[in-house]
Design goal:
heterodimer, A: mainly alpha, Rna Polymerase Sigma Factor, Chain: A, Arc Repressor Mutant, subunit A, B: mainly alpha, disordered C terminus
């Protein structure tokens, strides 16, 4: 992602150049669809949400401040949309600031022994298991895991999207990984 | 060096460790097969996590988005147009008046100028009137607070009044801060 290129496209879009905004749509449609696809788990709904993010972004484009990266601004809109959706569905939402359930909480220290999942599965099989296990993560942890691994955002960028301290993000991503990995051991 | 925390293993794999921590961990790995096995396992796990396939978007998705776009909003544009329009109108009127009484434009320009002048005068009166009313309201409130305070002093002893003021002040502060605290205590930390 080239931030300056994005800012130029935003400036052109604000001057009424729709082609410039279409370039932004083309650039970010796949990352957004991957994000919603893994978090919502419904194809049609993920498409609708991806489209909705662009519509909201276009309507609010004049409020975008160039000191932020466009990608983090766009994903902040996506994240808010997702949280609204989860709220409406009244899912058991785990607060980002709350501890993960005690049975899921993984120690920060090294375990005495654990079966290496890398030996148990071939890479393709491991990826399929991870895909399935992602859907069973608590929503808030799943979102951070997806932002980190599917969208390749840095911890700093995720912190900017979620408006959380970088340390908290690192800790949550760590918890998400270990929780997910522990579920891979359940054969 | 004793076995590192699991978080440090991830930090090492993601190149997030300082040069010194990295060197120490590499030294430890040379002598600890358990940590080496764990590192290899987490490396494969991270690689697999980051190489999941992309989900397939339907063809022509961006076109579909573009056809649904709302009108572009810009709160400043309307003000710019209004200010620019007013400036242009005023300039035309001044030019019309400057050309003198012999042109047919003069009466029209004079009429517009008079209308603009009256509009400005009315707006000024309105602003002055509103300011006077606001000043009157503040004065009335001040008198009311004085009367209430006088009554309270007659009824309660000075010590309990201080405590009551403290409690009231605290409650008011909470009421004012509540929307702020509530909006920050949201999953994203976003202010709604």
């Amino acid at each position: 992602m080239v931030p300056d290129e994005d800012k130029d496209l935003v400036r052109r879009s604000l001057r009424g150049d729709r082609q410039a905004f279409e370039l932004l749509v083309t650039k970010y449609q796949q990352p957004l669809f991957n994000y919603f696809g893994r978090l919502v788990q419904e194809r049609e709904l993920s498409q609708d949400f991806t489209q909705e993010v662009f519509l909201r972004a276009y309507a609010a484009l004049h409020t975008y401040k160039e000191k932020y990266q466009f990608s983090t601004w766009l994903f902040r809109i996506a994240s808010n949309l997702l949280i609204d959706h989860w709220r409406k569905k009244k899912l058991s939402l785990v607060s980002i600031d709350a501890e993960v359930d005690s049975e899921d909480h993984r120690p920060l220290q090294l375990p005495d022994y654990e079966p290496p999942v890398s030996e148990a599965y071939e890479k393709r099989e491991l990826m399929e298991k991870i895909e399935l296990a992602i859907s069973r993560l608590p929503e808030a942890l799943r979102e951070l895991f997806v932002l980190r691994h599917m969208n390749d955002f840095s911890y700093e960028e995720i912190a900017a999207i979620k408006r959380l301290p970088v340390g908290t993000v690192k800790n949550r991503v760590f918890q998400a990984r270990e929780l997910l990995r522990s579920r891979l051991e359940e054969r | 060096m004793s076995c590192p925390e699991l978080a440090s293993i991830y930090a090492y794999l993601e190149d997030e460790l300082s040069a010194e921590d990295r060197r120490q961990l590499e030294e430890h790995l040379k002598t600890c097969p358990a940590c080496r096995r764990l590192l290899a396992d987490r490396r494969i796990f991270l690689e697999a996590s980051s190489s999941l396939p992309e989900l397939e978007l339907p063809p022509g998705f961006s076109r579909r988005v573009m056809t649904c776009l709302p009108p572009l909003k810009s709160p400043f544009r309307l003000w710019l147009w209004l200010a620019g329009g007013a400036y242009l109108l005023f300039s035309l009127v001044v030019i019309g008046l400057a050309l003198g009484t012999r042109t047919s434009l003069f009466p029209v320009c004079l009429q517009i100028f008079k209308s603009l002048y009256n509009l400005a005068a009315d707006l000024s009166s309105l602003i002055i009137g509103l300011s006077q009313q606001a000043y009157g309201l503040i004065k009335a409130l001040r008198i009311l607070v004085g009367v209430v305070a006088g009554l309270l002093i007659d009824v309660f002893p000075a010590g309990s009044l201080g405590l009551a003021a403290l409690v009231l002040g605290g409650a008011l502060s909470l009421v004012l801060l509540w929307p702020l605290l509530r909006s920050v205590n949201y999953l994203t930390g976003d202010k709604k």
